[in-house]
Amino acid sequence: MKTIEQIVPHMEKVEVFEMPSVIVIGRAKRNNEIKNSQISMGELWKECDSKDIFSKLSDLPRIIPNHCLGWTGDCPESDNPEHNFTYMIGVFVPMNTPIPDGFDYRVLHKNLVGKGLFGKDMPETIDELKSLGYEPNWDDNNGWNSELYLDGEPDNGFSWLIPVKPIKN
Predict the structure, then answer these.
(1) 3-state secondary structure of 146
(2) For FRET with 58, which of 2, 69, 78, 80 sits at 20 to 30 Å CA-CA?
(3) Residue 140, CA atoms < 13 Å, CB-side half-sphere
(4) What's the chain's Rg over C-alpha atoms?
């Protein structure tokens, strides 16, 4: 099985990859900080752009080459009737990477992840992963998924990165 270090732009099929334990480093907001989570996320992207956050993130040693994430996590369904979550614009880095001052981070455990196709929505991606024998693993790491933005792909979209586990028969 390939590792997430082998994810590249313009992949032509949904695939499952091994992900080592990683740190996601970036800037984060809880969706309940502002009532409309879309405004909160949009403001966070603008903040990252205006405060030169992206150049600071590009200086970090990335696990997936030339990527940026719109990571959603901290949302275990069983403990979260309000469906609150953290949205972080960031990158996956090795476990020994120092956290820059003023940045947020989360540690993610070793896992399998499914990478969807560019421009496909989450339900389509999950259906494709199920056809490969995998289902979402929302239980690990308090439930997370990520928009995956890769240099070399169009600026107006992303693919999904979803933790997965084999479907039990």
Answers:
(1) strand
(2) 2
(3) 17
(4) 15
